[in-house]
Amino acid sequence: MTDLRITEIFHSLQGEARTVGVPTVFVRLTGCPLRCQYCDSEYAFFGGEKKSLDEIEALVIGFRCSHVCVTGGEPLAQPNCIPLLERLCDAGLAVSLETSGAMDISAVDTRVSIVLDLKTPDSGERDKNLLSNIPLLAAKDQIKFVICSRSDYEWARFMLDEQQLVGRVGDIFFSPSYTQLAPAELAQWILDDRLPVRFQMQLHKQLWGDKAGV
Fold it and tell me: Which residues bind [4Fe-4S] cluster (predicted)?
């Protein structure tokens, strides 16, 4: 079977990562093996509706939008995510994949821009980070840290050096956890330490709040 369980497919502005502000179709797959304490998509853990790859591709193309983001949940928890990514690339779309970093990315189509979320200690899921993914990343890819506290920030700084992340990927994002860390505080830490990263806030939440389908 070439079905995927889908929570939602919708058209919005990309709220984070390299193409922030760009009109994008989001394909949110159902299910996730992680339980990050700050998760903003818990509604995607269960339920969803099975759709074939043909159905998904047709729905995405129907929005007449050149960018598509496959997200979750954790999209790579469903094996058929891999052929979906390939299909979307073959359709001529600019494809990004938002993944937790807890799943093997080795089979992801090389045309896809991977946005890898390295889990910080305060997420509660740091031990799930699959560090063997990092050498597979390239300049087209991106790494994101969601920062909840000063200790998270220091851990992320350490990872920049230990894993030699600067120069490995095109962009490294430090994003404040939505309700747990004042954005200005994180911004000042980055400036004080001259970190070669990009500060990021979630545009979609600034525009429409913390809700599904945006």
Answer: 32, 36, 39
Q: Residue 15 annotated as binding?
A: yes
Compute how many other C-beta atoms are within 10 angstroms of the C-beta atom of residue 211.
10
CATH number of 3-208: 3.20.20.70
Q: How far apart are CA 108 and CA 123, in angstroms?
A: 25
Is 72 labeled as ligand-binding? Answer: no
22 Cβ neighbours under 8 A, 6+ residues apart: 13, 14, 67
In the 8-state DSSP scheme, what is residue 147? Answer: E
The reply, when asked if residue 62 is annotated as ligand binding, is: no
Q: Domain segments of the chain: what residues?
A: 3-208
Q: Measured between alpha carbons, how far is 124 from 28 in angstroms, rounded to an integer?
A: 23
Q: Is the pLDDT of residue 204 over 70?
A: no
DSSP 63: T
Distance CA 16, CA 75 (A): 17
Q: Is 179 annotated as a binding residue?
A: no
Mean pLDDT of 76-94: 98
Confirm or deny that 32 is annotated as ligand binding: yes
pTM of the predicted model, to two decimals?
Answer: 0.93
The answer on whether 43 is annotated among ligand-binding residues is no
How far is Cα 139 from Cα 148, in angstroms, rounded to an integer?
Answer: 27
Secondary structure of residue 166 in the 3-state scheme = strand
Q: Binding site annotation covers 38?
A: yes
pLDDT at 19 > cutoff 80: yes
Q: Which residues pair with 115 in a beta bridge?
A: 98, 142
13 is in an annotated binding site: yes
Collapsed DSSP state (helix, strand, coil) of residue 29: strand
